Amino acid sequence: MPELGDYLLKAKEKLDAGHHKKALAILNDIQKQYPQEPLVYVNLSLAHIMGGDIDASLAALGQAIALEPENPDHYLTRISIYQYTGEVDEALADYETLFRFQPENHNLYFSRVITYAAVERYKEAFAECNAFIASHPDNGEVHLVQATIYEMQENWRQVVIHCDKAIAKGFTTPATYFTRGNAYAMNGRYEKALTDFAEVIRQEPDNFEAYEERVNVLMTQRRVDEALAEINAYIEKFPEDSEAYLIRGMIYFEQEQKELALKDLQHVIKHSPQNMMAKEMKRMLQEIIRAESRGQMPPPKLLKKPKKPKR
Q: Rounded to the nearest 5°, which phi and psi values hold at 245?
């Protein structure tokens, strides 16, 4: 008889390929042979999630927890499901259980804070932060957590204040500078935003989002040539990232360099055929080019480039 690991590997291969029904069939057979193995139920939970059956997924996780009640990973997985379904009280109850196992795990506290904030229970979120600060006065990360809550409320001034506090206490991570840079950009303090995004890139040279935000800021200021140079620098380092070609295509679109824009969009579609943004822009450009070739003005709506969705 094949070993448990062989069965689980087969199930994982089906899950990775997106075949949740085939994975379920394998896992249901495994469950009959290994009814006391927590990993079987963890994988069953994942397969049910892929199939959209939340209740069955939670039931499977419940079985894993019953068999292995002190494994924090099971609770973290269940918390993520509860957050997805909006069952905040259930998620908070699992956090309480986790705190008994890992009372010094700061990330659990911060995750619970964000859980409160995600459902606009800001009073409780800030109370958690303040209690943490009282017992950990030298911790800088908690101020980034507070900044994240203010970001949810679009209170950009407070975002900057709390990122400053985080940095002053030595929490100088890319996330801190990125969060502050975004707040600066939203407040129109563009040079400060560019500086913070540059610091993110200095720490993480492959951080596409930081390049993208620098491009957005430069485009907002109508510094199109600088924006183009920025994205070209990224593409030179990471030519395989098709998302960067979409950004450059949009800049070419803005410059009315239609053939260059079309070339970049075709590159995106070739390497990311599900990218609907690139397909829509390509369609618009082709209509504009056809209209101009006939000596006609394209309809005004074609001259408006679509907005770039958040990555």
A: -70, -30
